[in-house]
């Protein structure tokens, strides 16, 4: 059996305080006054104390009053005995009747007390259940509060993380904008380079066409030199046939030989210069004027060769006439 949490003296003092305050003494009132305990036990202790203060003294035989005793002594012994016996009988009946009434009252009070104790037990059980439910609800409320606090902390953390991510996103957007600007500049630069490349390709094509023209001109000049060689060979044959004019022919042949070597040297020089012009043309446009000057010089040399050829032909005609 579980030991009592509160002593009987504490319960009785609590009941007295309730009576002094004009309040009704019940199990729940006593429990509230002392701060705990079983209501049925509390009210039982109080009822036992209250009943102990209301003890009914009962005796099997009571003495007659003094006046009756003196009156009876004056009577005769037989009458006195009859009267005493009658008085004692009546007194005993009255006492038994009173005791029986007291017993009935006590029995009824005990039954009421037991009923009240049963009701108190049921009420205490209900209160305990309500307290258990209240405690469970309080625990659930505390758990919900903790979960809410945890959720608030998580929301706060997520909010901070969101702010940080937004800042990082803004920085990334700025970097992206700068990179896009750089990319646009690079694209514009590439487009410019492509346009410059196209322009250079056009210039290169023009230079190639000029080079092909110059090459054709050089080939034409080579043909002219070849024709001059043929004429020179024919003139040498004529010199051999003219024995009479050997000295003049030898001198003329020597002169023609010098002219031929000069023509060959000029041809080689022209070919070399054409090659140089082609190399210079492929590497730089700035040398165009120099190439033109070289071509002019070549033309001049070819004209001189042609002039020399013409002079040689004129001399041959003069020799023939001689």
Total beta strands: 0
Shape estimate = rod-shaped
Secondary structure class reads mainly alpha
Number of helices: 7
Q: How much strand?
A: under 5%
What separation lies between the terminal Cα atoms? 175 Å
| Rounded Rg | 77 Å
Helix/strand order: HHHHHHH
> Spans with pLDDT under 50 lasting ≥5 residues?
none
Largest sheet: none
What level of helicity do the residues show? over 70%
Average per-residue pLDDT, rounded, comes to 76
List the helices and strands and how they pair.
Layout: H1 8-20, H2 27-34, H3 39-52, H4 66-74, H5 77-241, H6 246-283, H7 288-321
Helix pairs in contact: 1-2, 1-3, 2-3, 3-5, 5-6, 5-7, 6-7
Task: Describe this entry's structure for a reader.
The chain is an all-alpha fold and 322 residues long. The protein has a domain at 209-321. It is built from seven helices and no strands. It has helices at residues 8-20, 27-34, 39-52, 66-74, 77-241, 246-283, 288-321. The longest helix has 165 residues, at 77-241. The model has no long low-confidence stretch (mean pLDDT 76).
Brief overview:
This protein has 322 residues and is mostly helical.
Key attributes of the depicted protein:
mainly alpha, rod-shaped
